[in-house]
Amino acid sequence: MDFADVDRDELERLKLLYRPLTDAVRELVDATIRTEVDDDVIREAHTELTDVTATLRDAGLSGPFGTKVTGDGISIAWGNAAVGTRNAIAPPLTIEVDDDGRHHSTVTLGAAYEGPPGLVHGGVCALVLDHVLGMTGSADGRRLTGTLTLKYLRGTPLGTVHAEARTISVDGRKATVRGTLSDADGVTVEAEGLFITPASRN
Ligand SMILES: CCCCC/C=C\C/C=C\C/C=C\C/C=C\CCCC(=O)SCCNC(=O)CCNC(=O)[C@H](O)C(C)(C)COP(=O)(O)OP(=O)(O)OC[C@H]1O[C@@H](n2cnc3c(N)ncnc32)[C@H](O)[C@@H]1OP(=O)(O)O
């Protein structure tokens, strides 16, 4: 993994710099889906946005952001599709960990995450659960998703959802993790995953 030569103060400064930009892009995505303004306003917005994008591309990485680690051991995965600080596609998830190892996250999924009308896209449910279960199974070492099985019990309404997960067993490089996605009325998706530390990283 690449090294990021930043101390905690600089990391905090960068987060404060990028978070509002990413939030603004998230708002833009939502507005793009839901706007009903006149055609000429759409064309004007398109021109302005093209200019903004060109400005941001004045200097940039040649590839994806990747994961970097600071001298303090903090992982920076700012392009990550689930949690990336600089990724407007990320909901973004914030994961909390209880003393007993349960990982959980509450997040609001708006119009950008729609699948069936008014409901969260099944792949987005999978994204949320993969990440929460993956972090749970990686509590004692980095593991990748080997197999993820989901049971969609009913549609997950757009809005605030809650994901949680627990490690059921650890067998060397393999961890079995179970979790759920819920709305206010209860569980909508059940998940079980096998997370594996790749042999090549042992
Ligand atoms: C902010 C997060 C960003 C990251 C930050 C970085 C660090 C932070 C630290 C920790 C957090 C890290 C991650 C967790 C976070 C989020 C979760 C999201 C995870 C993903 O988004 S991740 C992308 C999708 N994921 C892949 O891209 C995997 C592609 N794949 C492979 O990389 C290999 O395929 C691998 C590693 C799966 C196995 O490779 P391998 O060579 O090590 O396996 P090997 O053959 O040695 O088998 C050993 C034993 O596992 C069994 N086994 C093998 N494969 C299996 C499978 N697929 N299903 C079920 N069982 C399987 C065998 O049957 C054997 O079982 P047995 O020992 O009993 O015989």
Describe the 3D structure.
The chain has 202 residues and is of the alpha+beta class. The chain folds into 2 domains: 1-88, no CATH class; 91-196, Roll (Thiol Ester Dehydrase, Chain A). Helices cover 30% and strands 30% of the residues. The protein has helices spanning 8-34, 39-56, 122-137, and strands at 2-4, 68-70, 75-76, 96-97, 103-109, 144-152, 159-171, 174-183, 186-196. It has 3 helices and 9 strands; from the N terminus they run βααββββαββββ. β4 (96-97) and β5 form a beta hairpin. The strands form 2 sheets. A 6-stranded antiparallel β-sheet has the order 4-5-7-8-9-6, covered by helices on one side. Bound molecules: ligand 3IX. Ligand 3IX is lined by residues 67, 75, 77, 80, 83, 130-131, 134-135, 138, 142, 144-147, 173-174, 194, 196, 198-199.
Shape field: globular
Strand content: 25-35%
Strands ordered across the widest β-sheet: 4-5-7-8-9-6
CATH fold descriptor of the largest domain:
Thiol Ester Dehydrase, Chain A
CATH superfamily of the largest domain: Hotdog Thioesterase
Identify every distinct bound molecule in the structure, by name, code or SMILES. ligand 3IX
Query: What CATH architecture of the largest domain do you see?
Result: Roll
Number of domains: 2
CATH class of the largest domain: Alpha Beta
End-to-end distance, in Å? 15 Å
Which whole number gives the mean pLDDT?
A: 97
